[in-house]
Amino acid sequence: MDDILPHESVPVGRNRRWRVPAGHYREVMSPSSSLRRVLPVGVEGGWWPKVVRYTGGSVVATGCSELAFVLLYGPLGVTPAWSSVVAWLAGAVPNYWLNRAWAWRRQGRPSVRRELLPYALIVGVTLLLATLATRAADRALTGAQTSGHARVALVAATFLGVYVVMFVLRFFMFDRLFARLARHDADLPPTP
To answer: Which of 94, 116, 124, 191 has the highest local Cβ count within 10 Å?
Structure first.
């Protein structure tokens, strides 16, 4: 590990992240332990690790959303539309920060026009679909002979189903968004 010197690293993009040139190895420290391992450069990049990080962030965000939805729609008796909106918000905020910082490794202040608005549009489609689907499921189940617990479980499953379906589509949309932002940042002159 001593053969890699800081002057051999190359700054990349406006955020000044440092990468070791190809062919070199670097040391990676696991945050959960003091064990060290050596990975070839590039193993952390690419699609697969990004998908794993995106999945982790999505699981956290979906858990927040689903919990909020079940609590609002079930015990509190809030309408499916309002439950969907509040639950979406409960997941959208952690989802944005986890995707931005963890899955796509973005740092610094986000641009409202180039980053926040496109992101809000992408996740807004999920909100719209979840609201329409849960309202339709609630209406269909209200007229049927279902218990209150079964209705809550089925409408909550509908809410979750929208997120599962949108998971893959949103990954590719987010990947295009953050790739475009990275290209834009790389074209900017470095900040002093």
So the answer is: 94
Residue 42: HSE in the Cβ half-sphere, 13 Å Cα cutoff:
5
Is residue 81 within 8 Å of residue 132, measured between CB atoms?
no
CA distances from 6 to 3, 20, 24, 190 (A): 10, 9, 12, 18
pLDDT of residue 191: 62
Q: Which helix (H) or strand (E) holds 17?
A: strand 17-19
pLDDT of residue 192: 62
Long-range contacts of 147-154 (CB under 8 A, 24+ apart): 152/70, 152/73, 152/74
**Residue for token pair 């899955």:** 103
Q: Which residues of the chain have pLDDT under 50?
A: 1-13, 15-16, 18-44
Query: Is residue 121 within a helix (H) or strand (E), and if so which, with residue range?
Result: helix 117-143
Distances (CA, A) of 126 to 49, 180, 190: 24, 22, 36
Q: Are 159 and 84 in contact (CB under 8 A)?
A: yes
Q: Are the C-beta atoms of 152 and 73 separated by less than 8 Å? A: yes
Cβ-Cβ contacts under 8 Å for 186 (sequence gap 6 or more): 12, 13, 14
Distance CA 70, CA 58 (A): 18
Looking at residue 132, what is its pLDDT? 95
Instruction: Find out whether 103 and 54 touch, Cβ atoms under 8 Å.
Output: yes
